[in-house]
């Protein structure tokens, strides 16, 4: 097993860790291992930008083809000379 040392740990953070470990009935060291296991268990993904993220999320639904509306001249502009 490997060991790591965490330096410059804020006292408030250390106190929160101690309280959390006590709530779970563990030592602070065991609590840190549990936190790291949980945090690193999921898939780590780094999205390059919002568009890429959205495309990946909805890719399973396939392409959506939208009909492009016609671009006619529209209505006549109002006349104010009357």
Give a brief description.
By secondary structure, this protein is an all-alpha fold. The chain contains three helices and no strands.
Describe what this molecule looks like in 3D.
It is a single chain. With 82 residues, the chain is mainly α. Helix content is 44%, strand content 0%. The protein contains 3 helices and no strands. The protein has helices at residues 11-23, 28-41, 50-58. Helix 1 crosses helix 2 (28-41). The N and C termini lie far apart (91 Å). 0% of the residues are buried.
- Average per-residue pLDDT, rounded, comes to 87
Please give the count of helices: 3
Please summarize the sheet with the most strands.
none
Q: What's the helical proportion of residues?
A: 40-55%
Overall geometric form: elongated
> H/E order of the elements?
HHH
| Low-confidence regions | none
Please tally the β strands and state the result.
0
β-strand percent reads under 5%
Measure the end-to-end span. Answer: 91 Å
Structural class: mainly alpha
Q: Roughly how many Å is the radius of gyration? A: 29 Å
Task: Label this structure with key terms.
mainly alpha, elongated, 82 residues
Write the layout of secondary structure elements.
Elements: H1 11-23, H2 28-41, H3 50-58
Helix pairs in contact: 1-2
């Amino acid at each position: 097993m490997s060991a790591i040392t965490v330096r410059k740990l804020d006292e408030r953070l250390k106190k929160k860790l101690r309280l959390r470990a006590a709530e779970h009935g563990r030592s602070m060291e065991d609590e840190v291992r549990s936190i790291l296991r949980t945090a690193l268990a999921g898939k780590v993904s780094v999205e390059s930008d919002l568009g890429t993220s959205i495309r990946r999320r909805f890719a399973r639904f396939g392409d959506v083809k939208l009909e492009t509306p016609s671009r006619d001249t529209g209505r006549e502009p109002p006349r104010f000379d009357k």
